[in-house]
Amino acid sequence: MNRERGFTLIEVLVALVVVAIALGAGIKAAGALANNAERLTQVSAAQWCAENLLTELRLTQQFPDIGESPFGCEQLGRSYTGTLKVGPTPNPLFRRVDANVADDQGRPVLSLSTIMGKF
């Protein structure tokens, strides 16, 4: 008997499909990692902006007035804009302060809140 050895066309095609699916999943995972790293960088820089603003308010030892005011910040070569919103609390000696940070296109990135007391 003379049987030739080797793979059939169907077996080769199935193997190629398996490899293609594995490569597609790998590329998708790599893309997701890159997007997550970019998002983490953006959120970290926005948080630094908000924390710097809130720390500045604490260091001036002034009781913030109720209302909203815009602010801007630059971190890691990126520009951020935001709104500082000061609201009342049930105790008149404290105020709630929200720093809402957006990217240069106006998309919300981060919101950071704190309570400030009257000095």
Note down, in words, how this protein is organized:
By secondary structure, the protein is of the alpha+beta class. The protein has a single domain, classed as GSPII I/J protein-like (Pantoate--beta-alanine Ligase, Chain: A,domain 2). 44% of the residues lie in helices and 33% in strands. The chain contains 1 helix and 4 strands.
Throw out a few tags for this protein.
alpha+beta, 119 residues, 44% helix, four-stranded antiparallel beta sheet, Pantoate--beta-alanine Ligase, Chain: A,domain 2, single chain
Can you summarize this structure?
With 119 residues, this protein is an alpha+beta fold. It has one helix at residues 9-60, and strands at 67-75, 78-88, 94-102, 108-117.
Overall radius of gyration: 27 Å
* CATH H-level homologous superfamily name: GSPII I/J protein-like
Largest sheet: 4 strands, antiparallel
Task: Assess the beta-strand content as a share of residues.
Answer: 25-35%
Mean pLDDT: 90
What do we call the CATH topology?
Answer: Pantoate--beta-alanine Ligase, Chain: A,domain 2
Distance between the termini: 99 Å
How many individual domains? 1
What's the total number of strands?
4
Strand order of the largest sheet: 1-2-3-4
Order of helices and strands: HEEEE
Given the C-alpha coordinates, what overall shape results?
A: rod-shaped
